[in-house]
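Many introductory courses stop at the sequence. We go one step further.
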Amino acid sequence: MNDITDEVRGQYESLPYPARDPADEKKRLLRTWLDDLPMINHYCFGGRQSFANGFRALVAGGGTGDGTVFLAEQLRHSDAQVVHVDVSAASLDIAKRRAESRGLANIRWIHDSLLNLPALGLGKFDYINCVGVLHHLEDPDAGLRALLEVLEDGGALGLMVYARHGRTGVYQMQELMRIVNEGAATRAARIDNAKQVLRAAPRSNWFKRGEDLIQDHRNDDAGLYDLLLHSRDRAYSVGELFAWLVDGHGLNLELTDVQHGRSAYLPHMLLGPKPPPILKAIRKLALRRQYEFAELFTGRIQTHSFFANRKPNRAAYGDRSMTPFFFHEPMTGTDMARVFAMGRGRPIVLDHAHTGVSVEVSPGRHGPDILRHIDGNTSFAAVFEKVRQQHGADAARLSDDVLFDDFRDIYETLNALDRLLLRA
């Protein structure tokens, strides 16, 4: 094992990350974006996964247990199993105590490296979470290959790696910290030096300019060290991500930025309600090129969070058996119908406070009526039938295809925000 690998392991033994107190489990449940079962179902299993019949989830490099605890809590009353693997004994201990505090008995604990997964005899998994890990490996592709070896053919990965452009200031500050910490023999000394420099840094410093996008260094010493003093840290642009995973491994990617969904990568949702004429040309580009544009345009994407599977299996819009439901925010079909009815059939500007997205959306002729019947339990087939009942003699013209097309702009906008999803 080389010195840097020893240093990485040592970091997480002395500074388990993220810092967590098992006693806090009595007060709250931390949700992890990629591990919400409705999201996994929508993006990875065509909306048809029951998470029963022996469903198996692996958290590879699970650290202090955020993803593990959240998955296990959601799967508590099923026959599913969660396996947590981590190289740090200190992190593993915290994760175990968090699970014990919640009375979770559906987790298996493994103290080992994810690189050894194929040799551990753990079998195959339907879903593998590997968040914030691959970019710290000496060979990230070796880590990815290890994950793919234990992934079921129809399974999916939930991955997060650092994003290159949004972390420009971070990497400049990391370089500065290497200069500052030449000769600093202990982690405590490096942390103290870093804090001194951060307090003195001028507003012109690139890290300071983008500091509103970053939180870790403000939380605790473990966060500061992980962000600015890590011995091995690399990032990917959208183009590099696609070259690695899509071109190199033939995987399908479903990008979903934390709290923002796919909208963070879609130019037409970032250029405002009255976009410049160039948007027409941009929207003709291949989707991955549009994603590259969005990453460079906003400069705010710090991490790439996404699902990856061997074949696309997103729940299909246009399937009348699917049930639409609102997610991530407390909203109802009646609430949303009111919003889109304000345009009286004309396009409205949807200002989404949580993401900052401001985009023009066509409500169609029947969008508000369709929204009014979305309650999370009613399929599109039943929703459309209720809409037809409102239209008497005109009902014959309102086929499912007509109504799907009419509702498409609303659906695609809310779905890109991950606020409207589908399940069977």
